[in-house]
Design goal:
heterodimer; A: 131 residues; mainly alpha; 3 helical TM bundles of succinate and fumarate reductases; elongated; B: mainly alpha
Chain lengths: 131, 128
Amino acid sequence: MAQRARPLSPFMHYRWQYTNTLSILHRITGVLLSFGFLLLVYWLAAAAAGADRYAEAVAKLSSPLAQLVLFGAAFAFCYHLLNGIRHLVFDMGHGFELQTARRSGWAVAIGALVLGFIVWLVIRGGMGGVA
Amino acid sequence: MSLKSPLRRVTYLGSAKGGSGHWFAQRMSAVALVLLGLWLVAALATMGGASHANVVAWLSSPVAAAFAVLLVLVAAWHAVLGLQVVIEDYVGAKGQRLAVLIVVKFVFAVAAVIGVLAVLRIAFGVAA
């Protein structure tokens, strides 16, 4: 009898599927949003410090680099929000069928891009009235 | 020979310490943040430009200030719970892991207090 291949640790032989990427993106966007939270606190603290300090903060947040960061934060917010809801549904024991899980994954990815762009426009539009 | 009962010898060892509490807190704060996050976006979209006067007027409403305080507290809590899992997964050395966890928790505790004080300062009309 031929020797059977010995079992490997899962990460050694799982083939890549886009749902893997969706899963790790939830972590990555979560970490990014943690930094986004610190930005939110910075914005609130600037508003509490008075109109001059607030104008300085908004000027800093209007630089091209900061705008890129804010777009990233807007996308991360929408992705983490939508995928978080998807995971809450998983936690309740629904949506595990392969086709359903893949469809909801696509919906989350596309929804996050579209909504992220809209949220970024909201933030940008709001700041446009200031800086 | 130990006089401890078998149950006493294993309780609080192994993986079943407070895992379910952490798991549940992460999800409960997630549900709250769905509502608070949508509230924040809606508030930003409808305040007619985030000028200083508009932000101050927005947070002068007790309801808005209450939600903003909740948002800051729950977001900090949720972030710490999530970062803790990430750190525990990827930082292997025990000493380093503890150090990073302490730094992250302190940073978010300080940020949360600053955020709450900032909202209250505006809500109580101290911010000019």
